[in-house]
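Structure ticket #2291
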Amino acid sequence: MKIIKILAVISVMLMAIGSKASVKQIKCHTPRENHIFTIKNDRLVLEGRNLASTVAQRMRKTATGFTTYFSFQGKKHKLHIDNTNSFSELDDYIQMRSKQGHEMTYPLTCSWK
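Resolution: structure written out below.
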């Protein structure tokens, strides 16, 4: 009888852990939706192209957010999400730098998908 109770408790705990382990996606875009990003499992997808498999990508996580660095179409990109619990157009941005050093920064509108 005790073994059945223990197994029941363990199975309930595993189901709870499994449901929390499900990964949500973060979807971000620039104001005119020129650039659309989806972040899932520490991988970045840009307009349907999987950048992680084609371009070197680095991700630095913080306590509440992350910064991802990658190269795409000859430009270096820095995508910064300050707080994944509370997205903000003031704190979340993408920065693009050309080979000539010209730099553009766009605010991001992000949400959980």
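Closing remark: Residues 66 and 81 are 5 Å apart (CA to CA).
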